[in-house]
Design goal:
The protein has 222 residues and is of the alpha+beta class. It has 2 domains: 56 residues; 151 residues, no CATH class. Strands 1-2-5-3-4 form a 5-stranded mixed beta sheet, sandwiched between helices. β3 and β4 form a beta hairpin.
Length: 222
């Protein structure tokens, strides 16, 4: 959850620097011996850096993909670049792509736009007076501009569904799946991170995926 506060980090860094500088100046005035004050200042900074870095000692040198997997294993952000590459290869730059879930990074990596203004699902699922109108707006946008490709996330944290959450959008998406308008191409899961193709010879159930990929059938038009 710490990434929600990342915008505060520059300001906290400035305040910390001012505090350390103030303490160092006080030490210089107190001891009147600059070498000793410098030594104490270096020790203080070392303690601060060690305190910050020690909890991350096993993570800080990891490659980005492994670090994302270690920090956000439940959200599985480490799958996003591969999902985005496949989405980009299947669509034109102007083609709308709908990500059913709160995974806007997939759209960013793929350089594609959503057919709806909602690139995360939380405003639609957290029980508020606006949740149902937002779901109706999303359904209308999908009906008006059907995406050629959809990525469906089955990760609970990607939806944050609650007992009181409106079910209009989920019912609509379920209806699309049952209608045959979209073909399930395959998906990804945390145990087998490579794309698992869904074919006649290999037709796993959707609940075996953490993400699955849908493509609109050509005979349904636009």
């Amino acid at each position: 959850m710490g990434h929600y506060y990342i915008l505060l980090v520059p300001f906290l860094a400035v305040l910390s620097s001012i505090a350390l500088d103030t303490v160092w100046e006080s030490l210089t005035f107190k001891f009147r011996r600059r070498p000793l004050a410098n030594l104490i200042g270096v020790l203080m900074i070392s303690v601060v850096l060690l305190t910050m870095g020690w909890p991350l000692r096993r993570k800080i040198w990891l490659p980005p993909a492994q670090l994302a997997q270690r920090l956000y294993h439940e959200n599985m952000f480490f799958l996003s670049p591969d999902i985005a590459r496949r989405v980009a290869a299947m669509t034109k730059p102007e083609s709308p792509v709908f990500v059913a879930g709160s995974e806007p990074q997939i759209l960013y990596y793929a350089k594609r736009r959503s057919p709806t203004r909602f690139v995360i699902m939380y405003p639609l699922t957290i029980p508020t007076p606006m949740a149902e109108p937002y779901q109706e707006e999303t359904i209308a946008a999908l009906a008006k501009n059907p995406p050629q490709v959809m990525v469906f996330s089955r990760i609970p944290k990607s939806w944050a569904m609650q007992p009181e959450s409106p079910q209009l959008l989920m019912s609509y998406l379920t209806g699309l799946l049952k209608s045959g308008r979209y073909q399930v191409l395959g998906g990804w899961n945390k145990d087998q991170q490579d794309f698992i193709e869904n074919s006649i010879s290999n037709s796993p159930k959707l609940d075996s995926y953490d993400f699955f990929l849908l493509k609109k059938k050509e005979d349904w038009g636009s």
